[in-house]
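Re: duplicated header lines in exported structure tokens

Our pipeline writes sequence and tokens for each protein into one text file. With two proteins the header for the second block appears twice in some exports. Here is an export where it did not happen, for reference. First protein block:
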Amino acid sequence: MQPFSPIVRPLKFYAVVPDADWVACMVEAGADTVQLRSKTLTGEALRREIRRAIAATSGSHSQLFINDHWQLALEEGAYGVHLGQEDMDSADFAALARAGIRLGLSTHDEAEMARALAVQPSYVACGAVFATHTKAMPTEPQGLDKLRRYVQQAGNTPTVAIGGITLENAPAVLATGVSSLAVVSAVTHAPDPAAAVRAFQQLWPE
């Protein structure tokens, strides 16, 4: 299998949001990377939402990943898709790679990391680093020591830390060597989401 296309720019601050309006908000705020994680829409409504999200990022510096719905992402010409371990058995990796779509894969331990790296994805996500209430996790929080080992295991493949990340703990997470920080509630529950994006982005040197 051919390796997946590399990301165009460093992932850095990675916002995971529930709809295309939020995607547009994150693009306007200048987020480096945005993921559309729609858990309620199906069928044509979902297709329209994916189209709106793609349109919102078109011509911007924000890199958009579509969570789970790889078929629609492929049909709509999305920049990237993000899949969980449970999706790896059914996804057509060859078709996605041929189309030049970037691929991110979730991992929760060393075995899942090895399985993900075998696909030669564009990046791997590691989590949950800390306790999170945004989704039910299959494993206990991994912590910083395990995250550091996952980063080493990933080698040259970019890594994304996710799960319970805040502005307060973000510097310690970045100190593990991880490439990117993914957040959900740190922006969607923030009083000023755009300000939250800017505050996180200041954690990376120019």
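Second protein block, exported in the same file:
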Amino acid sequence: MLQIGTRGSKLATTQAGHVRDWIIAAGAQAELKIVKTEGDVNMAPVERIGVGVFTQKLREALAAGQCDVAVHSFKDLPTAADERFHLVIPKRADNREALIARDGMNLDQLPEGARVGTSAPRRISQLLALRPDLDIRPLRGNIETRMGKIDDGELDAVVLAYAGLIRNGYQDKATQVFAADEVMPAPAQGALAVEVRADDAEIVAVVDKLTSAVDRDCALAERVVLNRLEAGCTAPVAAYSTFAAETGIITAHGGVFALDGSKRLLATASGTDPIAIGEEISQTLLADGAAELLGES
């Protein structure tokens, strides 16, 4: 029986539950095992404790043999490879951003000075570019807690990853789903990362059956942009990719944004090598002043 390590939140267990079901469908037995993290215990803001606390404990548990499989949101993993682990990317969910607003409103319909919850600099910068009048408020907690701030009148709207809403059955709560070129998502958003110990050939063979090569390569191109810009996953950097099945061509788009919404740098590249695509985008962005823009954020 494979032990799948996961955080205890509803979103994390739902994501890990999908992986469990896929592993069972692939012919192995699996069950979930909850791993506590510092972020679960102290509920401190991600900006202070760092998103890495949510992945480090899972990786430590995996390396120590306390679980056999670890499931992460791919966008939260460090971009540098960890040679201890074998990583698989299954079929990706919708990578777009979603607005959940009171009274069914979309972004244009929100009143002047509307209170919108998000703590992600990437989202903050792009929202302010579209609506400089918005009152952006910090947001913390699970999906239910975040959406509850609208119901209790604390906020007029929140912005969340559409994939998380879909995985938890809340997609109908979205009052607007932004096109990827309107509010660009985080690199690898919507993708799960399934890790196992690299030296465990039997388990590697099991999880390899979950691989989606297209989704892996598209997410990799996006994460190369983040890596080459030397930016963390909370930096105002965004990327998304599309795949043309008839030609096998990946087209990736990257963006870097001023936190106040006053400036953005965009770049696009296409090809079949995800690493080369991501490097071309990052080189273009750096040539256009991305390092200076990130330094100001």
